[in-house]
Amino acid sequence: MKFIDEYRNRELCDLLVAEIIETVDRPIRLMEVCGTHTMAISRNGIREMLPPQITLISGPGCPVCVTAQSDIDRCIELAQVENVIITTFGDLMRVPGGDTNLQSIRAQGADVRMVYSTLDCLAIAEREPEKQVVFLGVGFETTAPTVAAAILQARQRSIHNFSVLSMHKIVPPALHALMQHPDVTVDGFICPGHVSVIIGANAYLPIVTQYHVPCVITGFEPADILDGILKITQQLQKQTTRVDVSYRRAVFPDGNKRAVDVMFQVFEIVDTDWRGIGMIPGSGLKINSNYQEYDASLRFKLSPPKAMKATGCRCGDILIGKLIPPDCRLFASRCNPQHPIGPCMVSSEGTCAAYYKYHR
């Protein structure tokens, strides 16, 4: 049965590619705004399936990658505070700061622990009440509701030695910033699947309306992605723009209202800095005043040094689709998965990591 399913999927992909070839009538640049899509596109050889008129570029869809250098330095500074336990997801451990990273700080004695959910942090805080447990909140609308839920639980369970350093970001404002960026040319967006489950397809209507650029939300199977690309080429051929969904089994017009409500019960929207793009208005999430006792930035009054860029690293340009990884002179030489110079090589969803693994 598995062989039959794989055969049918290959057959479907071939049909979709044939339709794309018939539909595309000019050179177009499509941007996927999801790190999981970036990996799926590279792993399944989707670029190689497409006609040469279509260029796929990767956008700022990797949450670890778009975290500003100054925020990484704040994490490292916080990890060196006495009696603080830093908890984080794995990818953030090796992202370089100005002169070190969390993994190196841990090797020197800092208490930095990898967790799989924010609920793990609450368990640590309960087991070690004499320590301050800080979760490094990195991610988009996909993870922010779970972090908000952990803060709500901390209050309900009277856990007072837990806090969050919120570096969360929201996706639609970044798409606005990209469309206004002088160095970015995008003819259509492949919108993130996981994020769209939360915020819904209607969240992209302002992008379509203001910039007349097609948007499609896809899943992560090759047929999902190819169907999304076909929908964009059909829109461009007919000179129409709308939000299409090739992931209807998971994405609905209004998303997951309950998750969004939990998120905004705890967080409020603020301006925030994105690596490669800069400050984007209304694109970040800060813990609001009702839950400020769980805000690590207030609890520890952090004042990080000015961020230093890694010499020669072009992650910023790669995150906006201005360059592809091989255009960076460090790629696959000084910068590799064993010794990453920038975050795009560190993260499991990073564009450089995808190119290194599948396109060298």
Helix share bin? 40-55%
- In CATH's first tier, which class applies? Alpha Beta
CATH architecture: 3-Layer(aba) Sandwich
The DSSP helix count reads 17
Q: Which band does the percent of strand residues land in?
A: 15-25%
Q: Give the helix/strand class.
A: alpha/beta
Shape: globular
Radius of gyration: 21 Å
- Strand order across the biggest sheet? 2-1-7-8-9
Describe this structure in words.
With 360 residues, the chain is α/β, with parallel strands linked by helices. The chain has one domain (1-360): 3-Layer(aba) Sandwich (Rossmann fold), CATH 3.40.50. The protein has 17 helices and eleven strands. It has helices at 2-23, 35-43, 46-49, 63-66, 69-79, 102-107, 118-127, 144-156, 171-180, 193-199, 205-211, 222-238, 257-266, 296-300, 315-319, 343-346, 351-358, and strands at 28-32, 54-58, 84-88, 111-114, 132-137, 162-166, 188-191, 215-218, 243-246, 267-274, 278-287. The strands form three sheets. A five-stranded parallel beta sheet has the order 2-1-7-8-9. Strand 3 (84-88), helix 6 (102-107) and strand 4 form a beta-alpha-beta unit. Helix 1 (2-23) runs parallel beside helix 12 and helix 2 runs parallel beside helix 17. It is globular, with a radius of gyration of 21 Å. The two termini are 34 Å apart.
Give the structure's gist in a few sentences.
The chain is α/β, with parallel strands linked by helices and 360 residues long. The chain has 17 helices and eleven strands. Helix 1 (2-23) packs parallel to helix 12 (222-238) and helix 8 crosses helix 13 (257-266).
